[in-house]
Amino acid sequence: MTAGSDTVLELLPMVFAAPGEALARAEEVLGDRPPALHASVAHQVIGIWQRDFGDMRLALSHLRRARAWAARADSAEREADVLATLGVALVHAGRTRQGMDALRRGVERGTGHTRARVLFRRAYAWWVLGHHKEALDDVRRAIPVLRQAEDVIWTARALTLRATVHLALGAVERADADFTAAEALWDTTGQEHDKADAVESRGLAAFRSGDIPAALRLLDEAEERYAKLGTPTFMLNIRRCEVLMAAGLPAEALAEADAAIRALDGIGGQSTRKAELLLAAARAARLADDPQTAIARAALAVRLFAGQRRAWWETHARLVLIEARHAAGRGSGRLVADAAAVAEKLVALGAPAAPEASLLAGRIALDLGWTADAERHLAVAARSRRVGPPLARMTGWAAQALRARAAGSPRGVLEACRRGLDVLDDHRMTLGASELRARATAQGAELAALAQRASLASGGPRRLLVWSERWRATALSAPPTRPPADPALLSGMTAYREIAARAEEARQEGKPVPALEREQRRLEREIRSRTLHMRGAAPDGGDRFDVARLLARLDDSGGGQLVALAVLDGRVQVLLCGQGRVRRFEAGPLAAAETEAEHVQAGLRRLAHPGAQARLPVVEAAGRRLEELLLGPAAAHLGDGPVVIVPPGRLHRVPWALLPSLRERVLSVSPSASSWLRARETAPPPGGRQVLVRGPGLATGGAEVPELADRYGGATVLEYDDASVPRVLAELDGAALAHIAAHGAFRADGPLFSSLRMADGPLIVHDFERLDRSPYRIILSCCDTARFATVGADELLGLVTALLPLGTAGVVACSAPVNDAAVVPLMLALHKGIDAGLSLAESLRDARATLPSDALHRATGWAFTAFGAA
């Protein structure tokens, strides 16, 4: 490349517009024995590329050569510019003193416009180091000069940096103004890398203002832009980890951070970024209940930050290290002092995380019984309860609740918990995806537990019921936002079905499917990513749970009882609601009940095969033990009417009809009392339309469907090629009754990809969420359709829980593998009761009674459950 100086200088802005092309041209310049000035520019371009996208050792080597060639060219301005680039690289390499010295000399050597660019880069280095005041001072000095020189690119960079510093200090409105101004400038340039960085920055701003769906959408858009340029995205990885953690997805954040660390180590990348990724990994591990991993990552981050002289970052890493040690059970007076010292340091640094450190110090002091120390620290943390983003305010309300508990004020505890959970409710309702709503509840688990303990101590069973409902299955309290008519999302779901169907066909033929499985996983990630972008409706307060209304509806339903199971300090509390009152009984340990429920599930799996008759007494005995653990003395007070069970999420796999006191009853299950009330008050759609669906590959061929078609006469029957996902969804929308005979598959690793197999591939939970109104009653005569993943505080994700908020008032589904042939007579008997005007629960009870008494048929009857109230 032999063009003049102006052409060679164009390589510098090109490195952020077209990095690969800039690198190639710079190497071409060096191959032509260039003059000193040109050689300096070319080495600087290669150094920038290696600094940001490659090996730091190579970056430093090229930048030192760039400086040497600038000195030979006798250009003070060129040397000042290179010193600035070198200084930033040295800071990223962890050589803080050398880097800041190079930047100081660059400021001294440069004049006018060049000096302003050097000041910007020194401001950037101050930001990396966590010296926010110094960063603001330098960038504020640079911006007027850059504007006066009409330097659009560097002005936009300076505004973006100033906005980022404002965000670090919690000044969201100032940051928004600078980001908006910078974006307007970027629109006039061809700087594609900087444009991607602007989108990434907007994602960070959206996150800081509490808009998680927008943050995820913008970060994904930035990643797509970076991918087109072929550049690594370590800063974006860090920011996405923050958002994923706030969204209740810490395990995913940990996986992303660890993968980025491996990639960074693989290219010999920036030491500063590695330390920041280690901090993100430590935070994620702590939130994922993995304190040992958190301790290891945080301790290494502390050492790196200390060596890099980055006090801001080191202090934040120390906070996570103390949190992880506390979570690992290492409470001590030294830990209280360490947390208090971190809180003071964060205040001095102007860091928004200071209340978290004060809360931690207070929490550890309370555990040690140091009430005076605890009160001092908690009072400081509680000041954040009225200002800032939602999660910061929740920190304040948690501190206030702990203060009230220490002061012996149950009323104060309940008020603080109510206010804190109200903040989280408002935050959750901004999330459109049901998965995010469910997972976000984990952030209120402590407040909910504090309130339950306080209500039990001071208000009796009725108040305990109210607070149990306050934080039970809240993700079902409102329908998820309907997925947008996004062509990319729709085409992705169609492609997913096709790939999944091809993979299933290949498996049946005994062919290898790794390539198809990789593509299926890729499409799953794309679908999930797009659904997480959905923003929820503005919070409207919703209906508060009313005990009197519940008791009145129970009386209206034939004098039935609702059994709500709460868990306090590891034991099951039974709240028996009915006959105008709420009574409390204490049952057994939750852990023992979970273990027994797993034994029962294993027993039912064995009974699903012929020849297991001898196992029947074992399973029945396990059912008796389960009843003692889950109902205890309450079993003797159930009366003769219908029973509604409201279990905690961790007991969702209990086959309730196996419990002796429930076997002959009209029995239904609901995720919450509020959910049961809503189902009870849901009116069926006009027209009474019935839909019968028969999927492929069933051992019986869905033998009940033709007989049901004869019973219902005008029902819509979808089978063979007609049982395609689009056709099935169209017919299900607004139906009064739907019966689906199809293979079910539960996905514990991705519950919203749990599916029913249709002619053209899987019908997944995401598909059901596209319905305007799901069927009023739906019967799923296949295995595993009533299995759920437990997430958040007490939330369930699965097929049934997707249907209940969408207009379905009653579901019959199965929580265990069953014998296909034994299902057919159960389903025919069930529909006989429905046709006679009975509810699903009544029909299922009567259907069980018609089955033969052998183990196979009895296990089949126990495996099915009626959910809801229709």
Automatic annotation (TrEMBL):
- Residue stretches making up the CHAT domain: 621-868
Taxonomically, which superkingdom? Bacteria
Per the UniProt record, one Pfam family is CHAT
- Stored SUPFAM superfamilies: TPR-like
User: Do you know which SMART domains this protein is assigned to?
Assistant: TPR
Q: What is this protein called?
A: CHAT domain-containing protein
